[in-house]
Amino acid sequence: MNILIVFAHPERHSLNGALLDIAVAELQSQGHEVQVSDLYTMHWKAAVDRSDFPDLPTGERLKVASASSHEFAADGLTDDVKAEQEKLLWADTVILQFPLWWFAMPAILKGWVDRVYACGFAYGVGEHSDRRWGDRYGEGVMAGKRAMLLVTTGGWPEHYSERGINGQIDDLLFPINHGILFYPGFTVLPPFVAYRVDRLDDARFEIVSEQLRKRMRTLATTTPIPYRKQNGGDYQIPTMELKPGMETPGAVRFALHVAEQKPCLRDCED
């Protein structure tokens, strides 16, 4: 399996760096090919601006979506963006690794998404009509590939529980899992989250390390989050509202877009 890890932490000699080394070593020991995009080491340009669209005429107003679409179709995107797109097409599984900062991914990783997810590549693909609203949310260029988040946070698990002060971790990560990964077609695995990392002693580090090794060993068999596909019949077109009666009992808000988990009979992982 080809695996791409997009790594977003400014200090390579950090807990995140150690977890990256553990993940890469375990994956390679299983015979997988691994590439790492270390965004800080790469000095990744995070902000989208006119320099991303070399063919945009001087003085013309920048409309990012249309400029992105034009440059992608003309093979005119910048070399750094095209290199990351090639990695995504090469990968069977993509892992986004980052510390949770202010309830979101670091800006450099969001900037990677903003620039690499060009119109015509990750969005704006497929038929757009009164019958179909494009290939997205379960379909698209990344369909057939798996993806997951590897996240560290200083907070306790209880802080991110259903009644926790920070909000439930599934809700906080929903915009990334559903909106950044599932949108272009990835099959999304449950995230790997390491809690209380600022207070991680050696014993706890060994526990987290072994948990991560297990997740790396089971990427192909871990049961994915059962997000509802946009064009699978659950949504009304063109409003894209969930059809009445489709919701899982008790589900509200983000959880409405997760189908009821079917009983697992084989090849399932915790």
UniProtKB/TrEMBL annotation:
<feature type="domain" description="Flavodoxin-like fold">
    <location>
        <begin position="1"/>
        <end position="210"/>
    </location>
</feature>
<dbReference type="InterPro" id="IPR003680">
    <property type="entry name" value="Flavodoxin_fold"/>
</dbReference>
<dbReference type="InterPro" id="IPR029039">
    <property type="entry name" value="Flavoprotein-like_sf"/>
</dbReference>
<dbReference type="InterPro" id="IPR051545">
    <property type="entry name" value="NAD(P)H_dehydrogenase_qn"/>
</dbReference>
<comment type="similarity">
    <text>Belongs to the NAD(P)H dehydrogenase (quinone) family.</text>
</comment>
<keyword id="KW-0560">Oxidoreductase</keyword>
<protein>
    <submittedName>
        <fullName>NAD(P)H dehydrogenase (Quinone)</fullName>
    </submittedName>
</protein>
<dbReference type="Pfam" id="PF02525">
    <property type="entry name" value="Flavodoxin_2"/>
</dbReference>
